Hints:
This protein is 17% helix and 41% strand.
Amino acid sequence: xxxxxxxxxxxxxxxxxxxxxxxxxxxxxxxxxxxxxxxxxxxxxxxxxxxxxxxxxxxxxxxxxxxxxxxxxxxxxxxxxxxxxxxxxxxxxxxxxxxxxxxxxxxxxxxxxxxxxxxxxxxxxxxxxxxxxxxxxxxxxxxxxxxxxxxxxxxxxxx
Length: 159
């Protein structure tokens, strides 16, 4: 096995991941974030981990509300949603312009997504340049016939 950074990055990039839009709301503000580092972490209680850079505006909303929504992107809407959410949003900027959303206790629900998981924050751990949020799944729905979008990166050392 090689120990150089490029080889390590190529190997990490082969780890497949889904693409999700994580949303949150707090204090009359809401936003969304394109996330690929989302993973189930427990059967009982059902839980997930989400990795978020601490400087992203959504971090403050999750920290304040102790809740977040995971919207799983489907194959049919991947390009549209990744384009909209991939650029990021400034605090106060409308992340949901032009999208059909529903309100929830956890954050906005994107109607175009194939599954939705409402999570209560149970833990937060520093994990290098991203924080790891652990959320117990308290609500969810999904279209069992829809296919989630999955991708791999050329390198696991950058987006």
